[in-house]
Write a structure and sequence with these properties.
This protein is an alpha+beta fold and 450 residues long. It has 19 helices and twelve strands. A hairpin with a 4-residue loop joins β3 and β4. 44% of the residues are buried. It binds protoporphyrin IX containing FE. Protoporphyrin IX containing FE is lined by residues 83, 91, 120-121, 132, 186, 277-278, 281-282, 285, 322-324, 327, 380-383, 386-390, 393-394. Belongs to the cytochrome P450 family. GO terms for molecular function: heme binding; iron ion binding; monooxygenase activity; oxidoreductase activity, acting on paired donors, with incorporation or reduction of molecular oxygen.
Length: 450
């Protein structure tokens, strides 16, 4: 059983600051002003989650948030221990709606027979590892490498469209569509509508990790219902071509040998969550990486002059500005985290972006250093039994984006004065637009000049 408290006890002032009338944590400890005012859906956390928790990392590294009814964990070692102890910290709530769903929204979902069940990332042992092993083959490096020529071809054709233009929005012109095409290719889905997948991805982020107001909940629930149907339809289509390449056809073949391990409901679930897992995360990671690299001009120029630094730079981008900034677990027993008592059934928001700026692990953590020796120890892909299965593919996409843009547009700059905006939610983070400009007559590749 989970311990949940009345989050309606949280209201906001006219200027949007959360005010909580809950004065004690579930263990009876007084709640500090800092903890009471922690609100991941707006303000400082939306601007930069790691900065927003800087003081907490120092003074109150584990605290109860009445706005969320979650315990918030901010330090590297505590989060690492949570990831490494799946028996005590269950993944079951990973895809739960962080904002309770209204009655009306539930009715809408029922109309679509929306029945999401387990989908690897929210499963516990031993079934989690059994399914993960059975479904792992397409994620292995040798399979992922085979996709590289196709990904390079798609990236090249997208850059061709804007290279002579002198200005672009890296998200709209490149990072949104290409990871979607790659995600569908990886999943084995031929020729799907990218815009449909884009809309569904945004709905799922808001539905699972956002705080949509009541009227928006119905719209989001309708989107989720449609996404669920869409995923089911895709699985049915793929069952007609079981020998095809891709993750879902692979899972359909596993189902033939072991229908109890991989049910139809499971296939529909992994199709739906797979689109989000493979697409949004990588789009956001690319937007974050280029915002960061271009804001740190010396690093970008160094990289353009020496592409052998790309792999290290990718890890530093993922550490400094990861695209998954917080993940969730639930305690299965009474325990302590960072010396703080936490009862069984408590929900934890483990802020990996905060861990990635913990100075006990990363010296001078707020400095962006593409040659940092231990950047790869970031927690952006999680750790332990649930570590991201798609990390090799995500790294490969980032490598191709950085390599191609460094080669063809090393002189691009961020448009000055632009404001970076983010979809408000606890976990998935990337700029909605990254505007760049350059002088196309100076393009280094002669064929790219107007
Ligand atoms: C930069 C991009 C990405 C980031 C930051 C990211 C992050 C994550 C995180 C934080 C987890 C949960 C780890 C945990 O609970 O310990 C995860 C799991 C997972 N990711 Fe990714 N991911 C990315 C790209 C991808 C891609 C491209 C795919 C698919 C092709 C993918 C597929 C998965 C799957 C299947 C899981 C579940 C693994 C399990 O529970 O055993 N991810 N990812």
């Amino acid at each position: 059983m989970s311990v949940q408290h009345d989050i309606s006890a949280v209201s906001t002032t006219p200027d949007g600051c959360p005010v909580s009338s809950v004065t004690q944590s579930p263990t009876g400890c007084p709640i500090s002003h800092q903890a009471a005012s922690f609100d991941p859906f707006r303000g400082a956390y939306q601007v930069n989650p790691a900065d927003a928790l800087k003081l907490a990392r120092k003074e109150e590294p584990v605290f109860y948030s009445p706005v969320l009814d979650y315990w918030v964990v901010t330090r590297y070692d505590d989060i690492k221990n949570i990831f490494k102890n799946p028996e005590l910290f269950s993944a079951a709530i990973t895809l739960e709606q962080i904002t309770p769903v209204s009655e009306e929204a539930i009715e809408i979902l029922d109309r679509y027979d929306f029945a999401p069940g387990p989908t690897i990332v929210n499963e516990d042992e031993p079934i989690h590892t059994e399914r993960r092993r059975a479904l792992m083959a397409p994620f292995e490096a040798e399979h992922v490498e085979k996709l590289a020529p196709k990904i390079t071809e798609v990236v090249t054709s997208y850059i061709d469209r804007f290279v002579t233009r002198g200005k672009a929005d890296l998200v709209d012109d490149l990072f949104y569509e290409v990871p979607c095409i790659v995600a569908l290719l990886f999943l084995g889905v031929p020729d799907e509508d990218i815009e449909t997948c884009r809309q569904f991805g945004m709905q799922q982020t808001l539905f699972t990790w956002g705080r949509p107001p009541a009227e928006e909940q119905n719209r989001v629930a309708t989107g989720m219902g449609q996404f669920w149907e869409f995923a089911g339809g895709l699985v049915e289509k793929l069952k007609k071509t079981p020998d095809a390449d891709g993750w879902i056809p692979h899972a359909i073949r596993v189902q033939k040998d072991n229908p109890e391990l991989i049910t139809d409901n499971y296939l529909q679930n992994i199709m739906m969550s797979g689109i989000l897992a493979a697409h949004e995360t990588t789009t956001n990671a690319s937007g974050n990486a280029f915002r960061t690299l271009l804001e740190n001009r010396d690093a970008w120029e160094k990289l353009c002059n020496d592409p052998s630094l790309i792999n290290k730079a990718i890890e530093e981008c993922l550490r400094y500005a990861g695209s998954v900034v917080a993940w969730r677990r639930m305690t299965t027993d009474d325990t302590t985290v960072g010396g703080v008592e936490i009862p069984a059934g408590s929900r934890l928001l483990i802020v990996t972006s905060s861990a990635n700026r913990d100075e006990s692990m990363f010296p001078e953590p707020d400095t962006f250093d593409i040659e940092r020796s231990n950047a790869r120890r970031h927690l952006t892909f999680g750790l332990g039994t649930h570590t991201c299965m798609g990390a090799t593919l995500a790294r490969q996409e980032l490598r191709i984006f950085i390599g191609e843009l460094a080669r063809r547009l090393p002189h691009m700059r961020l448009v000055e004065g632009q404001e970076f905006t983010y979809l408000p939610n606890t976990s998935f983070r990337g700029p909605e637009h990254v505007l760049i400009e350059w002088d196309p007559t100076q393009n280094p590749v002669p064929a790219d000049r107007p």
